[in-house]
Design brief:
This protein has about 190 residues and is α/β, with parallel strands linked by helices. It has helices at about 5-15, 25-30, 40-50, 115-120, 135-150, 160-165, and strands at about 20, 60, 75-80, 90, 105-110, 125-130, 155, 170-180, 180-185. Strand 6 (about 125-130), helix 5 (about 135-150) and strand 7 form a beta-alpha-beta unit. The model has no long low-confidence stretch (mean pLDDT about 85).
């Protein structure tokens, strides 16, 4: 940015990124950047949004620039105590649909379900891990039989990571082919 913007502007932007915290930080920004006359009005809008959000705790971070850089206004994230990743992130992205003929204001968000599940007090059900081989009639028959008996059978797709599947299920058993017969056995590896 140096060489494109005035030195003072670059220094002020760097200083701004160091400020974060409770609503008090908004007053600090207004005070420290008093030579920018538009800041008080903008931050009063931000203060109002924070108060109207309904959140128990609101913090303001002037260095939060995550995303794909299409936001045109305030961005937000929702965090759960004890987790550093947000469970929800979003923001304002006015006029993004202009290239598609629908120029209008918009707000959107992404909900991170894995973060939510990671903190939920749920019991992971037991399941049997099985290979995904649609062309193996004996395997498919055995999977059907297990499911009809009330067992949960998870067929591992080529792109599946067992550790990821284990976030949702206890996978202590797997289907293995022993002497041509698909048998439920204790899992011995992270295949």
């Amino acid at each position: 940015l140096r060489g494109v913007l005035k030195e003072k502007t670059v220094d002020d932007l760097i200083r701004l990124t160091m400020l974060f915290g409770s609503e008090d930080v908004l007053n600090q920004v207004i005070e420290e950047f008093s030579d920018y006359p538009e800041i008080p009005e903008i931050l009063e809008s931000v203060r109002r949004l924070g108060r109207e959000s309904g959140a128990d705790i609101v913090s303001y971070d002037f260095a939060d620039v995550a995303g794909y850089n299409y936001h045109t206004g305030v961005t937000f994230s929702v965090n759960i105590p004890g987790r550093y990743q947000p469970i929800l992130r979003g923001g304002r992205y006015d006029d993004i649909g202009e290239r598609f003929g629908r120029k209008r204001p918009a707000v959107g968000f992404t909900l991170y379900l894995r973060e939510i599940i990671a903190v939920m007090d749920t019991k992971r059900p037991y399941a049997i891990l099985a290979p995904n081989r649609l062309d193996d009639a004996a395997l498919q028959s055995r999977i059907r039989e297990l499911r009809e008996n009330g067992d949960i059978v998870i067929e591992k797709l080529p792109e599946d990571n067992v550790a990821s599947l284990e976030e949702s299920f206890h996978l202590d058993e797997e289907l293995v082919c022993i002497n041509g017969v698909w048998t439920v056995a204790a899992r011995t590896s992270n295949r």
